[in-house]
Amino acid sequence: MWAATARTRDAIDALPFVRGLGDGSLDRDRFAYYMTQDALYLRGFARALASAAAKAPNGEEIAFFAKAAHDAIVVEGALHEDQVGRVADEAEPSPTCNAYTSYVLSVAHTQGYPELVAAVLPCFWVYADVGERLMAKAGELADHAYGEWIATYADEEFAQATEQAKAIADRQAAAADPGTVARMREAFHRATTYEWMFWDAAWRREAWAH
Ligand SMILES: Cc1ncc(C[n+]2csc(CCO)c2C)c(N)n1
């Protein structure tokens, strides 16, 4: 599945937003827009993770997704408050933020556990992948404008959570019928594309036309 998204991942690395995050040259306004949209995304995404916990077949996977839902709000929420302060209650999700969260929530509500696992996997995998790559290039994080962001996603514990999410998806795919596997691939691919769109939207400071 990961191999099928190689083009999208190359496109993510090439995004001006991601390059600027890596070398510290990204302007603060675009970063603040991204963090505000991300806070709105995390609230919806945490609900999808909680749904995955509700659908999970065993205690280990219930605990994994329930902790991921918790971390999406608490751990990443702390990063947000450090970086941009509390998100204003009146902040409105952008079209892309709305589309991505609505998409994962629609999978949560209309499809099964295997498809939902595939839909939430890029959120872990893309961020661990980008975090690791930016870390390798970043040098001393204390002197880096976006060091705290990079440290959050290059973290070893986060890498382990990503491995666990991949293992769960692999087990589900191995036991699934061909129709379910096809829907898992589609969900994985679409969510990976939404990850690209999310950064691109922040670069463009995307807004609603009306
Ligand atoms: C657009 C967007 N995509 C992925 C993440 C990363 N992320 C969100 S929730 C979660 C699981 C619990 O930590 C992870 C890894 C993000 N912040 N913003």
Characterise this structure.
The protein has 210 residues and is mainly α. The protein has a single domain (3-204), classed as Up-down Bundle (Heme Oxygenase, Chain A), CATH 1.20.910. It is built from 9 helices and no strands. Helix 3 (28-55) runs antiparallel to helix 6 and helix 5 (95-110) packs antiparallel against helix 9 (178-204). The radius of gyration is 17 Å and the shape is globular. The N and C termini lie far apart (37 Å). Bound molecules: the ligand Cc1ncc(C[n+]2csc(CCO)c2C)c(N)n1. The site of ligand VIB has 14 residues, from helix 3, helix 4, helix 6 and helix 9. The site of the ligand Cc1ncc(C[n+]2csc(CCO)c2C)c(N)n1 has 14 residues, from helix 3, helix 4, helix 6 and helix 9. Residues 16-204 form the Thiaminase-2/PQQC domain. It comes from Nocardiopsis coralli. Pathway: Cofactor biosynthesis; thiamine diphosphate biosynthesis.
